[in-house]
Amino acid sequence: MSIEQIDTLVVGGGQAGLAMSEHLSANGVPHLVLERYRIAERWRSERWDSLVANGPAWHDRFPGFEFSDVDPSVGPNDFPHKETVADYFVAYAKRIAAPIRCGVEVLSVERNVGRPGFRLETSAGVIEANSVVAATGPFQRSIMPRMVPSDTGVVQMHSAGYRNPRQLPEGAVLVVGSGSSGTQIAEELLESGRRVYLSVGPHDRPPRAYRGHDYCWWLGVLGKWDAITREAGKEHVTIAVSGAHGGHTIDFRLLAARGMILVGRTHAYENGVISFAPDLVENLANGDANLLSVLDEADAYVARNGLNLPAEPGARTPAPDADCVKHPILSLDLAKSKIATIIWATGFAADFCWLKVDAFDEHGRPKHQRGVSAEPGIYFLGLPWLSRRGSSFIWGVWHDAKYLADQITIQRNYMAHHNASQRDGGAR
Ligand SMILES: Cc1cc2nc3c(=O)[nH]c(=O)nc-3n(C[C@H](O)[C@H](O)[C@H](O)COP(=O)(O)OP(=O)(O)OC[C@H]3O[C@@H](n4cnc5c(N)ncnc54)[C@H](O)[C@@H]3O)c2cc1C
Description:
Blueprint: E1 4-11, H1 15-26, E2 31-35, H2 41-45, H3 82-95, E3 100-102, E4 106-111, E5 118-122, E6 125-134, E7 141-142, E8 155-158, E9 172-176, H4 180-191, E10 196-199, E11 203-204, E12 209-210, E13 213-214, H5 215-221, E14 238-239, H6 252-257, E15 261-263, E16 266-270, E17 273-276, H7 280-305, H8 323-326, E18 331-333, E19 339-344, E20 348-349, E21 368-369, E22 372-373, E23 378-380, H9 394-423
Parallel strand pairs: 1-2, 1-6, 2-3, 6-23, 8-19, 9-10, 9-19, 10-15, 11-14
Antiparallel strand pairs: 4-5, 5-6, 7-20, 12-13, 16-17, 17-18, 21-22
Helix pairs in contact: 1-9
The structure holds flavin-adenine dinucleotide (FAD).
Flavin-adenine dinucleotide (FAD) binds at residues 11-17, 34-37, 41-43, 47, 51, 53-55, 60, 105-106, 135-139, 181, 354, 382, 392-394, 397.
């Protein structure tokens, strides 16, 4: 039986795979996208029920296609529900006639021996390709610290497994992690009437909106989406933003005023007692400093450009400290505090175990420059900071995909030149 051949194989049918397909088509590169489940599966089944996009519809989208093209009720400043985001990508795939096969998992990729290209074992047979783009997502495997033993009687889950408050047993909840997921989940649980402890680590918390513009706009005009490296010392800092309830600035002190109990970074567990680092006040102060730095830069931008945007002095006034901030809790007896669930909103790691090529460093991290890997013919797309801050976001991945499509085209042109020279009787 002959083996199926394709020039470029894209692994993953999320936003990254679709953006890649669009640009490969524009460059006339024959390709195929393989998705193991459905288009944009993670938006459908690996997020909690109430999740809405963190960025407004006018910003977090591909150029040339609006959310209102899919659902006319979504306005430009709305934060689309996760199902609408998935529907958007399904519609987009149709619009660009993406050659995508769903329900096919790529099991392994290996370089051919003695000839160009790669051999891909898939759940539907073998395929050979000259180039492979790994578009399997920035958040592939949940990171869940093994700090609390599984036999304590407390239900433990990662934020990727959380769906809604009804899913959890009766009792208080400890949410670990103050990025967007942890904060939004903790707020939803508080609103459902739960007693909630939130473990707050180092974080940035930009204003949701300031002087009439969303923070996505501010990050754009201030050049921050295009920043190419993280600020030194901020490599492990998460960003707390929310589009819930029409979008609001995350202010941990306000959450505490509403009854949430803030604690520092979760540190250790022993004999039923979980302990926290004494860093709550410092983490909150650094988060405030981050907010103020964005406001300062925004004000300077307004002044420099003479923009007529209303001043918003109230944005600088911190809410008063609640008791849990004045007297931070350093340990909790899980049973005595009636904590029945721990939700670890502690992030994700990459998992490229199926990619058996020389494109990784000694820690298993992809070696690449703007997605062009150390192994010729292998490309990465959608990874955090692939080329800039925006790389793992809907808007940013589209631009990275364009660059990669151009790199693949350049290599195809070199090979076309070689083949033509061979036909003409010798390479030059
Ligand atoms: C809670 C949360 C909220 C977010 N909100 C926003 C937001 O509001 N705005 C924004 O811009 N970004 C947001 N992001 C970031 C980013 O947009 C999403 O993570 C997005 O899903 C990434 O798209 P992707 O295509 O790169 O990867 P994924 O969506 O992860 O898609 C990869 C696809 O590859 C498939 N796959 C994996 N392995 C294989 C294999 N071996 N063979 C075949 N298929 C495979 C998977 O099934 C999956 O469908 C959010 C992320 C999270 C976690």
